[in-house]
Design goal:
Elements: H1 5-17, H2 20-27, H3 31-45, E1 50-52, E2 57-59, H4 61-89, E3 93-99, H5 101-106, H6 112-118, E4 122-128, E5 142-145, E6 155-158, E7 163-170, H7 172-178, E8 192-196, E9 205-209, E10 212-216, E11 222-225, H8 230-238, E12 243-247, H9 248-257, E13 261-263, E14 270-272, E15 275-278, H10 286-299
Parallel strand pairs: 3-4, 3-5, 8-11, 8-12
Antiparallel strand pairs: 1-2, 5-15, 6-15, 7-12, 7-13, 7-14, 9-10
Length: about 300
């Protein structure tokens, strides 16, 4: 048998206040509404719970026993609901994100630490991988991807730098030994360090300058799967093995230290920055809502 919690609360309020009017004032409702709720509960139970006179309302014996058992039980329900309210009013819980490896290096370091400092009751769990994942089926709250990989039914919020570039680079020792390319097609005569996508494809290297787009398919001694192995490409380039093409921000510290030298800079291709994406605007989990709001305030 199912009971309406509102009817049970109405009975408790009237029994404790010893009257419908006083209970109505205390609960900010109407006496007639409380009376109807109690009558509905009595009908469902098949017993009288309250003895009513013109001067007083007191529980019957069975009503008193019900009151004694219901009070603690409904207090537990209220406590449980307060926990939910706490999640809404003071965000807490776990935020699970699926992101590309590049985001863990270039986007999230400037965002996650201050976010966690602002919301100490939230825990962030991040899985970094470069294959495309159905975040809903995989149990993630949100993901980070670039616009060409976003599904149309996803909500997208800009996160991190809005303009990025791919930079070509090699060690000064390699360039002194093999020459400095002056045009992207010159790369066909150089040792190039390549990345393979999770689908197995070796994507062409693309360059743009003054409205001209050039795609080349260079070859070289080292190919790694894009993701965690990209650091090996960087180290190989620093060691003088060949030329690589990677995010400019990833290579910037190595430009500044001098272990890598930028090449073909006028041809570096620009593209829009990444987006945080998630499946719905309605009733977001509190940790995700806090993260979205934090990102939007940071972008202002």
């Amino acid at each position: 048998m199912e009971f309406d919690l509102g009817d049970l609360n109405a009975f408790i309020a009237v029994a404790r206040a010893k009257g419908f009017r006083d209970a109505a004032r205390a609960s900010d409702t109407s006496a007639s509404g409380l009376s109807e709720a109690v009558r509905r509960l009595e009908t469902q139970l098949g017993v009288r719970l309250l003895n009513r006179t013109t001067r007083s309302v007191v529980p019957t014996e069975v009503g008193q026993r019900l009151l004694e058992r219901l009070g603690p039980a409904l207090n537990e329900v209220e406590t449980a609901l307060d926990v939910v309210n706490g999640f809404r009013n003071r965000p807490a819980g776990t935020l699970r994100l699926n992101v590309p490896v590049s985001a863990t290096r270039l986007t999230l370091p400037a965002i996650v630490p201050p976010f966690l400092a602002a919301y100490p009751d939230i825990r962030v769990e991040i899985v970094a991988e470069d294959r495309f994942v159905d975040i809903v089926a995989a149990g993630f709250d949100a993901g980070i991807r670039y616009d060409e990989r976003l599904e149309q039914d996803m909500v997208a919020v800009p996160i991190g730098p809005r303009i990025q570039r791919f930079a070509a680079a090699a060690s000064p020792a390699y360039l002194d030994r093999c020459g400095r390319p002056e045009h992207p097609r010159d790369l066909l005569n150089h040792a190039c360090l390549r990345g393979r996508t999770t689908s197995g494809a070796l994507t062409p290297w693309e360059f743009e300058h003054d409205g001209e787009t050039v795609r080349v398919e260079p070859s070289g001694p080292l190919v790694v799967q894009i993701g965690g192995a990209v650091d090996l490409l960087v180290e190989a380039a620093i060691a003088g093995t060949g030329i690589l093409l990677l995010f400019e921000e990833w290579l910037r510290p190595h430009f500044e230290s001098g272990v890598l030298e930028p090449i073909l800079e006028p041809w570096w291709q620009t593209f829009s920055g990444p987006f945080l994406y998630y499946p719905s605007r309605r009733l977001l989990p509190a940790p995700l809502r806090a993260f979205v709001d934090f990102i939007r305030s940071s972008n202002q």
